[in-house]
């Protein structure tokens, strides 16, 4: 499956606390979708957000995705970093954990994918994993990104904005179709290849899948619900069940007092047992059923959480 990995910074611009789409961003993603390229949004800013602030960060991502949808754009998956900034994970920065995780979980070949990025280090990450990088300037100059030095390697496209970057991708796709194979990437120089020192840290980014992919398991579909919300709705469900039971009990009491019932109802309703014992029996059996249900729900939640990780 071919994919276009796009850093979220290529799509949005921040003006104070306001985050909005860059001009033409939705149209650019619409063109990728029309060419059947799987669009994966990389929220690398989540790598610098503490878990307590992740909910607010996800709200920004939701608003970005909604703005793209309204504008006709489409995102198939979103990759986020769930780690604390102090953990030193390998999700992004000097290491391409985002790309490795998305490729592994979504069954992609990175040498058939594109990376639309906005930093010089991102270009190197793309080359290291075999992606075709496209550098998006968005109002900056090459000198700003490379401190006046010559970019290394030299054969990657550089675009003024995201729309231009997407046009490069589509041109590359046309060329690949004409040649019958993708362009062979240029090997990195030894200096560029050896920049990240040491072993790659652990990484386990969250991959949120918005477009169903046959045979893909072990990823978060859509937006996960936090535990507090789950507990709140579970309590609401139990309360509603109790309220419904009281209503049914009142109705049955009224019918029992005003309408004749067959003789077997005497045994069916356990009237041969004293009322206090009868009440205790129903309460005890209800507690057992609720306890078993809660236990099964907890096990199911734990299993789903393990699969997502």
Topology (elements, then pairings):
Elements: E1 3-7, E2 12-15, E3 18-21, H1 25-34, E4 38-43, H2 54-70, E5 77-80, H3 97-106, E6 114-117, H4 120-129, E7 132-136, H5 142-146, E8 158-159, H6 162-179, H7 190-193, E9 206-209, E10 220-221, H8 227-258, H9 265-268, H10 275-308
Parallel strand pairs: 1-4, 1-6, 4-5, 6-7, 7-8, 9-10
Antiparallel strand pairs: 2-3, 5-9
Helix pairs in contact: 1-6
Describe it for me?
This protein is of the alpha/beta class and 309 residues long. The chain folds into two domains: 3-221, Rossmann fold (3-Layer(aba) Sandwich); 227-308, no CATH class. Helices cover 47% and strands 13% of the residues. It contains ten helices and ten strands. The strands form two sheets. It has an eight-stranded mixed sheet with strand order 8-7-6-1-4-5-9-10, sandwiched between helices. Strands 2-3 form a two-stranded antiparallel sheet. The protein is elongated. The model is unreliable at 224-228 and 303-309 (pLDDT under 50).
